[in-house]
Amino acid sequence: MSQNKTNIYDIEPHLAEVYDQSEIYQDDIALIRDLIGDRGPLKILEPFCGTGRILIPLAVDGHEIYGFDQAKGMLERAYMKVGQLPAETRQRVTLNEADAIGTPWPQGFDLVILGCNCFYELATPEEQERCVVSAVGSLNPGGYAYVDNDHMEGKLDRSWRKPGVAQGFPTGNCADGTRVESYIETIWCDTPRRLVRFRRSTRVTLPDGNVVEKEYIQQKHPVSTLEVKAWLEKHGFVVHKLYGDRMGSPYAKTSGRAIFWAEKA
Predict the structure, then answer these.
(1) What is the SS3 assignment for the chain?
(2) Burial class (CB in 10 A: 0-12, 13-18, 19+), 186
(3) pLDDT at 1 over 60
(4) 136-161 per-position pLDDT tens digit
(5) How many CB atoms lie within 10 A of CB 100?
(6) Contact present, 240 and 262 (Cβ < 8 Å)
């Protein structure tokens, strides 16, 4: 299990609804489709699958999808959305509650998707590298890994070390009138090692006036491009593509993202 013991989306089910209100972009799905090309239908694994934003469109495309996540709150919403699909599509989707660090990953896949900054859910580079090792074990020979993270090189960016309490994600209003408010405060950082620890708090005010509150500590390690490239190559991948955004632009020092398309040798 990751050093991060609390998953924010298990605090209260409405948090997953607020997540879906903001996480509505589809440019990464378009890029994945382009990279898949005429390969398929594929058997695809998505750890950290969340509410199914990526896996559901790929299932509609005809691929067989296996998604897992540690957060029950996210999976419950994914189950709801999958349940609204045609029966033929539903049969191509398997969802499971599992910890990416503490549970062996299933095997026999053609593509593993590590998207949406999923590495940012993990506390250390050791945990992140372990996911690369697990991805290798899950893939068939010649299978591919898609890895997508924000781009940060060098020391921990100043924005991550900013003192004080700030409103954080997820924050918003739900369809039934529930109000979700989240706050974040940096309480420790190791700038050279790019480690940062936050005190996070979430307050959920339900329509009947009842309040659910939770405070917890979360650590993050924003990965660098060099780290991810080294892990992929160390564990048997050949990097074929490195993009700087989800439009497929070439990677550069000024890029906003670092997106890898790598083949298991």
Answers:
(1) CCCCCCCHHHCCCHHHHHHHHHCCCCHHHHHHHHHHCCCCCCEEEEECCCCCCCHHHHHHCCCEEEEEECCHHHHHHHHHHHCCCCHHHHCCEEEEECCCCCCCCCCCEEEEEECCCHHHHCCCHHHHHHHHHHHHHHEEEEEEEEEEEECCCCCCCHHHHCCCEEEEEEEEECCCCCEEEEEEEEEEEECCCCEEEEEEEEEEECCCCCEEEEEEEEEECCCCHHHHHHHHHHCCEEEEEEECCCCCCECCCCCCEEEEEEEEC
(2) middle
(3) no
(4) 999 999 999 999 999 999 989 998 99
(5) 22
(6) yes
Can you name the residues that pair with 44 across neighbouring β-strands?
A: 65, 111
Position 40 pLDDT exceeds 90: no
Dihedral, CA of residue 151, residue 106, residue 241 and residue 265, to nearest 10: 130
Q: What is the maximum span of the chain, computed from C-alpha positions, in angstroms?
A: 56
For CA atoms 37, 23, 66, 105, give the dihedral sign.
positive
Mean per-residue pLDDT over the chain, rounded: 96
- pTM value is 0.96
Residue 252 is predicted with a pLDDT of: 97
For the chain, list the domains and their CATH numbers. 8-152+223-264 (3.40.50.150), 158-220 (2.20.25)
